[in-house]
Design brief:
alpha/beta; Rossmann fold; five-stranded mixed beta sheet; 9 helices; 16% strand
Amino acid sequence: MTRFALTVVRHGETRLNKEKILQGQGIDEPLSETGFKQAAAAGIFLNNVKFTHIFSSDLMRTKQKYGVAEGSPLSELRAMAKAAGQECPVFTPPGGETLDQVKMRGKDFFEFLCQLILKEAGQNEQFSQEAPSDCLESSLAEIFPLGKNCTSTFNSDSGAPGLVASVLVVSHGAYMRSLLDYFLTDLKCSFPVTLSRSELTSVSPNTGMSVFIINCEKGEVKPTTQCVCVNLQGHLTGVTKVH
């Protein structure tokens, strides 16, 4: 069994986030002043965590596409959904991605990630040489509730193999929510019992952090996933109101 950690962080606030304007692939809005403060706070919070892989959206604020609603106020999307007789969360504007399409992008990336980690773990032992598994795990445990929200899998006496990798992904709110939905509905991810359904389906605040432990094996259809935390935002205390 190959185990790795996945930390997913939403980008900092942009001016359009604050104004509730829809942003997708067609709008590459930079961070606002508040967004830079949030990103700085997230960087300080994660400073001592050891990551072996880092992936980021290629947009400045870190892809979701809203079609004709791109760049419009959220209120307009709600009006379009109402006119179509649908609820806003499941409504797809003309030319936009459906929720299933966004979810599929998340699934494809996750499967790519699992195969990449399995391949690298099988090729050599550079993970343990460059960043020992106990070091990867302990650096996460310093700031995230690994032991509190997870089972004895994280106990060194449990016999579970150490982490071979710790992956950081910086992405977007809607994409993260779709990835979380994939973990919840398709992979039957184990979540902390303290989390409500609404917390699991809500969009992450800017620079909100979610952490998962992934267990995968070659030839296994679906990896097992365990959630450590969802949309953590304690690092923003005293920074500003988040959106």
